[in-house]
Specification:
The termini are far apart. Helix 3 crosses helix 4. This protein is an alpha+beta fold. Helix 4 links the parallel strand 4 and strand 5. The radius of gyration is 20 Å and the shape is globular.
Length: 192
Amino acid sequence: MTHRPGVISLLCVLAAALATGCAGLRGAGDGSSSGAAATGVGPGWSKRMEDRRVAMERATRGNNVEITRTADNQLKLVVPSDISFDPNGYALKPALRGMLDRFAGLLAGDRTAQLTVVGHTDTSGGDAVNNPLSLDRAQSVRDYLVGRGVAATQVRTVGRGAREPIADNGTESGRARNRRVEIFLGEQASAG
């Protein structure tokens, strides 16, 4: 059987496009997609959200902030402890304040943005300490954003204590990863 070079090239391009498209869909469906895999406007993902994703990646570059697109089409920013909070504390570190200044600037005047700030701790200290500490961390972020022009009605806070670890609490590096804040950015449905 003889194949023409043009047909083979076309088939290769189509196969690559399908593989890329499927990889993007796989990432978006399980909530673990990276910004790179979840680009482009599509069902449930508006041009505004794509623009926000690009702007957030620029605003957080160099800070080890992880930005992903969730399965329900929100942006999720995971802010690690090395730039967010000291152990047992909820005072914002200077690096986090700088990042939040840029974040608030991007959202200035945008009344469709809806934020949920989720505070987390490691397992040191037990629930009696960790549950209020995680909420204090989330509220510190909210208060800072509100102080820079984000409407208080657009920001919800949640404290999860040590209930949702992303690393092993048996090691110092694992505990450091678990002390974090997550910021979810979604869009309010427009009234029609």
